[in-house]
Amino acid sequence: MGLEDAKNQVDQAFTRDDLKGNSFENAFGGATSFLRRRYTKDLTGVDLAITGVPFDQAVTHRPGTRFGPRAIREASTLQPYDPPFGWPFNPLAEFAVADYGDLAFDYAQTSAFPGALTAHIAGILTAGPGTVVLGGDHYITFPILRAYAERFGPVSVIHFDAHSDLWEDDDLTRIDHGTMMYKAVKTGLVDVASSVQIGIRTVTEDYLGFNVIDARTVHERGVAWVADRVKAIVGVRPVYVTFDIDALDPAFAPGTGTPVWGGLASWQAAAILRDLAGINMVGGDVVEVSPPYDTTGATAIAGAHVATELMCLCLWNKR
Q1: What is the pTM of this model?
Q2: Count of structural domains within the chain
């Protein structure tokens, strides 16, 4: 690429005319939209919208995930040159993917946050595309699931995590990342019989009907078995995939609020996600990336790769 070409390629987050196509820009310069997609609030013709939710006021331990969306976007600038490895299609070239920017909310009005997030996602879904959300702590999945359930009815959930997030909490006004899935189940947003949790390695007394594949089972039975089992559980139902980055072992993702040893290796997560191709995925998120606790940036890199895989899963059935 010559100098003149380089001038014409600058800041494609703002200047790209076509929402489709790979990007060829310096990874160390320019605006850090997700995978160098165009920032836009116009969802006309968009197949998938990436949006960030920089919220971390529901954590039980270490805050910092409000910086997750920005870090994931920055880490993603290493990826848009080539098609995602291991997929037999090029989602960036074949589909219109846009970066919708972040949810705007008043950090001092925490009680208003859940409704604002549900409305944000519902607005995108009404316009047509699905969403992949960059978090933020894991509480955000609860308001997001409200928007998806309003559109699809109770959804199946594939939940990667070290924790079940099913601890009892019947106060819907409490905003807690450790009880969000309990509330999602109890309010009828999730079809638990066709839902599954992967990577669990903390104690939960009642899984409320979720199918559970704990971390040790992943290690012992292997990734192919896990993917086959998950696909059998969810069948053809609309699926929402939520990936807490602490599903990965702290060796691979130290930058998170509640790390737990014995988790998935990066290669295991990548293989499972790719082998899930064909599920009826309608949306997803990657959450709990907390950059202040990882000076290497490895956790954000992992989060960016997870988000890319979620993008591929969402678009696979649209081919």
Answers
A1: 0.95
A2: 1
